[in-house]
Specification:
about 40% helix; 14 helices; six-stranded parallel beta sheet
C-alpha cells in the first residue's frame, strides 16, 4: 500500500549530465511511493538529456553556495564528542603528515552536512511532509548521508538511508586514505545499502562493535528491453568503452592497447566525457592511425543501448583503477556483449568466466593484447556461447526490475 513520500538526495539527476543510472531505479521504485521529491545539487542546464522523471516526482535544487557558505560559523562543532571521536580515529589511522588534511576534510563535511540538514528540515515544513510518512534516501554515502545521520540523531523517528558505491566508500582511493564520519553515518542511519559484496566486506570491519544489520547488499541493475545482437552481420572488429574521461578510468591504457592490436578493420567507440578528453583525443590521433575511432561524448543512455542493439560490439573494455560495480558493464551485458575488465572494487562480482575476462589491475599491455587477440580469433561458436552466457548473467543478477523492486520493498518496510 502506497503511503509514503521518498525524498531522494543526489548530485545531478535529473537536471544535468551525470547519475544516468538513477533513471532506471526511478522507473521501478517511484510507483511504490505516493510522491517522490528529488532534492538535487544540480541546476537545470537546459540541455535535452532525455532524463526519465516519474509522474509523481517533484524536482527541487538546493544551492551548493548556500551549503558551503559561512564556514567560520561551524568552529564550535569541532568541540563536539562526535567530531573529536572522528578526529582521534583519523589520528590513529593516518601518518602525522596527513592530520591537518584530515581535519580540513572533516570540518568541510560537517559544515556542509549541518547546513544541508537545516535545509531539509525547512523543506519538510514547506511541503507539509509528516516525518512518519517519508523516507530520506541519499544516493551517495557522503556529506548528504551525514546530513541524514545528523537528522536522525536529532530525532529517531526520521527514516533515513543511503547507498554506498565506490568513491564514497573505499578509503584507499584517496590521498590521504580517509573518508570522514563513516561510523557515525552507518550507525545512525536506518540502513546503508552497499552496491557490491566487496563494499559490504570492506565496510564491516569499521563497525565491528555494532550490528551488521545496518549494512545490506543491494545491487544496481539495468533495464534493457531491446533484442540482444548475437549474430554478426558486418565486417571488422568493434570495441566499445564507456566511462568518464578521468585519470582513474585509464583510457590512455586502452588507447595504448588498441595501438598494439594487429587486427584488420578495427574500430573503437568511446561513450563519455571528462576533463582529459582533449589530451586523450591527441593521444589517439598519434597512436591510432591504423584504427577508426570516435569519442561520442555524453549521450542519453537510451542512445548507448540503441547503439548496442544496432551494432555488433565484439568486446567491451574497462581498465579502471577503481570501481564499485560499473553500470556501464551491466549495460553491455544486457546487450550480450562480453567484457574485459580489471579486478578492482566489486568488478569480480560481474566479470567472470560467464561474462568475459577479469584481469589484474597491473596487467601488462602485451598480455592484454594476447587475451583480446586470442578471443577474437576463437571460433564463432565459442564467441556466441560467451555472448549468450553474458546476457543470461545480466538477466539473472543485474536486471533492474528485479533488483530495484527488492530495494523498494525494503524501503517500504522502514
Amino acid at each position: 500500500m502506497k503511503n509514503k513520500t521518498l525524498i531522494l538526495l543526489c548530485d545531478n539527476y535529473p537536471l544535468s549530465a551525470g547519475e544516468f543510472f538513477i533513471d532506471d531505479e526511478m522507473r521501478v521504485i517511484a510507483p511504490k511511493f505516493d510522491k517522490v521529491l528529488v532534492y538535487t545539487a544540480s541546476a537545470d542546464t537546459g540541455k535535452n538529456l532525455n532524463r526519465f522523471v516519474p509522474e509523481n516526482a517533484e524536482v527541487v535544487s538546493f544551492s551548493r553556495q548556500k551549503i558551503e557558505a559561512g564556514k567560520l560559523k561551524s568552529v564550535f562543532r569541532i568541540f563536539t564528542p562526535m567530531f573529536l571521536s572522528e578526529f582521534f580515529f583519523a589520528l590513529k589511522k593516518l601518518p602525522l603528515k596527513y592530520w591537518l588534511i584530515a581535519f580540513k576534510i572533516m570540518y568541510v563535511d560537517i559544515h556542509r552536512a549541518t547546513n544541508l540538514k537545516q535545509d531539509l528540515i525547512g523543506l519538510c515544513k514547506e511541503k507539509n511532509i509528516n516525518r512518519t510518512d517519508y523516507v530520506f534516501y541519499s544516493y551517495w554515502h557522503d556529506y548528504k548521508a551525514l546530513a541524514l545521520a545528523l537528522l536522525k540523531h536529532k530525532n529517531a523517528t526520521y527514516q533515513c538511508v543511503s547507498r554506498a558505491h565506490n568513491c564514497d566508500l573505499f578509503f584507499e582511493r584517496f590521498i590521504p586514505a580517509y573518508l570522514p564520519f563513516k561510523k557515525f553515518i552507518v550507525n545512525h542511519l536506518n540502513c546503508t545499502f552497499v552496491i557490491s559484496q566487496a563494499g559490504v566486506n570492506y565496510m564491516l570491519p569499521y563497525l565491528a562493535d555494532h550490528s551488521s544489520s545496518k549494512i545490506v547488499l543491494s545491487r544496481l541493475g539495468k533495464i534493457n528491453n531491446r533484442q540482444a545482437l548475437f549474430q554478426k552481420m558486418e565486417e571488422g572488429i568493434l570495441i566499445v568503452t564507456c566511462s568518464n574521461l578521468i585519470k582513474d578510468k585509464r583510457v590512455d591504457l586502452i588507447i595504448e592497447m588498441l595501438s598494439q592490436l594487429k587486427i584488420q578493420n578495427l574500430r573503437w567507440v568511446h561513450f563519455g566525457d571528462g576533463h582529459l578528453r582533449k589530451d586523450l583525443e591527441l593521444l589517439a590521433a598519434d597512436k591510432l592511425q591504423g584504427c577508426q575511432y570516435e569519442f561520442k561524448g555524453i549521450v542519453p543512455n537510451a542512445q548507448i543501448l540503441d547503439f548496442y542493439a544496432e551494432h555488433y560490439v565484439d568486446l567491451f573494455v574497462n581498465l579502471s583503477s577503481w570501481e564499485g560495480i560499473p553500470v556501464s558493464i551491466m549495460e553491455a551485458l544486457s546487450a550480450g556483449i562480453p567484457i574485459l575488465a580489471t579486478d578492482v572494487g566489486g568488478t569480480s562480482e560481474i566479470v567472470n568466466e560467464q561474462t568475459g575476462f577479469l584481469v589484474d589491475k597491473n596487467i601488462s599491455i602485451n598480455t592484454l593484447v594476447q587475451i583480446i587477440t586470442r578471443y577474437l580469433q576463437s571460433s564463432y561458436e565459442m564467441q556466441l556461447q560467451l555472448r549468450k552466457s553474458a546476457f543470461a548473467f545480466w538477466k539473472e543478477n543485474y536486471n533492474a526490475q528485479t533488483n530495484y523492486t527488492e530495494f523498494a520493498n525494503m524501503l517500504m518496510k522502514l
